[in-house]
Amino acid sequence: MMRPLTLQAKILLLAFLNIVLLLTVGLIFARVQFRLDLGSFLLAPARERILATSRLVALELPGTSRDQWNQLLARYISKNTASLYLFDDDGEQLAGETVTLPDEIKRMTRQRLRPPPPHNRDEGPHFRPPPEFDGEPRREPAPLEFTRTANPTRYWAATHMPVPMNPGAPPLRTTMVWRFDSLWTNPFFFNFKPWLAIAALTVLISAVCWLPFIRGLTRAISNLKTATGQIAEGNFEVKLSTARRDEIGQLSDSINQMAQRLSSYVSGQKRFLGDIAHELCSPIARLQLGVGILDQHASPGEQPYVARVQEEIQHMSALVNELLSFSKASLGARAGLESVNVLETVRRSIERESRGGLTIETKIDGRLSVVAQPDYLFRSISNVLRNAIRYAGHAGPIVISALAHGENVSILIADEGPGVPAEELEEIVKPFYRPESARQAETGGVGLGLAIVRTCMEACGGQVSCRNRSPRGFEVELLLAAA
Q1: Can you list the domains of the chain with their CATH numbers?
Q2: pTM for this entry
Q3: Which of 1, 165, 180, 481 is deepest in the core (most CB within 10 A)?
Q4: Tell me, what's the pLDDT at 35?
C-alpha cells in the first residue's frame, strides 16, 4: 500500500504542475497567435552552428593538402556526435569516410548540372536551354538544407560552400553533408546544460518563494493536530501560539478557548461528583447504623429482608467510595511523586485483594522502582487485580510482572479469563463503562475501577493500556517512568 502524500508534498507538487501548465498554455498561445514553430526555434541555433563550422572547414581546405582532407573533417567533428562528408558539385565524394547516400541526399549534393551543348545559331536569338538536363531541373541551392530519412532514422544537413582553390580560378563548388543519428543527444541541436541550469534556477526560485510559506503552514497545522490530540486524551492544559493573524491564528485562539472551557466543565463535573459522594457518606453511614440496629430486633421472618437491605446499602457505600476515589484521582496534581518500590506495592495489593483458592504469581525484580505517588500506584494495582480476580479468578493463575524498557517500567497484570471484545478495549477505561459480559448484579462493580486506574496513572505521569492475550486472557499494562 502506497504511503499517502504529506500536505507539504501535495503543495509542492501542485506548484510544479502549475508551472508546467502555465508553460504549456503559453507555448500553445504563442504557436496559435504568433505562428511560432517550436522545431524552428530549436533548429535555428543548430543551423548557425552547422553553417559556421562549414565555413571554417571551407577556409582551411585550400591550405590543406588533398590527402589530409579526411583528417581535417575528422578534427571538426571529433567533439560532436556527427559524420561529415565532402562532395563536389557533381555529387562525387571528395573527403570523409566512404558513404553511400540515399537518393534524396544525392540530389542535395548536385548544385549545378553540366552545361548543355552549345546551341545552333540557326535556331534563333531567342533560343533558351532546356529547363532540364539528365532528368533533373536546374536550381539555385540554399545555403543549408535539412532533411530526415527513415529505416534507420537519420538526420541530414547539406551546406553548399565555394572553396577558392587557386587564385584567379573559379572556386570549387562543394557540398558538405552532415549526418546525425539523433537531435536531442547532439550538442549541435540540443545542449541540455543550459536547460538544466534554467530548471535548477526555476526550482530554486520556487523553493525560495514557496518553502517558507509551506513550512509555516504545515508546522502550524502539525501544532494544531498535536494540540487537538492532547485534548482528545483529556489534557486540556494545551496552549497554542496565536501570533499568526490569518485564519490559522484565529483557529488556534478558538482551540485555546475550547480547551479552557472543556477544562472548566470537566473539572466542575469531577468536583461535583466528589462533593455528591462526600455528602452521601453521612446518610449512608446513618443508614448502615439504623439497619444494624434493625437487624438485632428483627424477627426470623424479617431477617432475609433486612439482609437484602444491608446488601443494597453496602453496594451504595462501595459506589460512593469509588466516586470519592475517582474524584480525588482526577483532581489530583502530579505533586508528591517519589520513588516507589514495585514489588512492595504489589505485595500490599495482593494482601488486600487476595482470597482463598486463588493463584497469584509475581515475576518482579525486588530492586525495580518507579516514579509515582505511592497511594495512586497502590490503588491502581489493587483495582486492576480486583477486576482480574472478579472476572477471571476461576480461569487460571493471575500473573503480575514488571519489565524495564529504557527509561520506563511496564507493570503487567495478566489473567486467563475470556478477555474483552476488541471494540471495547478503548472504552473500558472510561467512567461508568462496563462490558456487556459484566452487566450482572452478582459481579458487582460500577464501571469506575479502570477509570480510576487511568486517572491515577495520568496523575503520576504514566499511561494505562489494555489488550487481549492469545489464545485467551486479558492483560493490563501500567507504564511509568523508572526511578
Answers
A1: 7-111+140-193 (3.30.450.20), 236-330 (1.10.287.130), 332-481 (3.30.565.10)
A2: 0.49
A3: 180
A4: 66
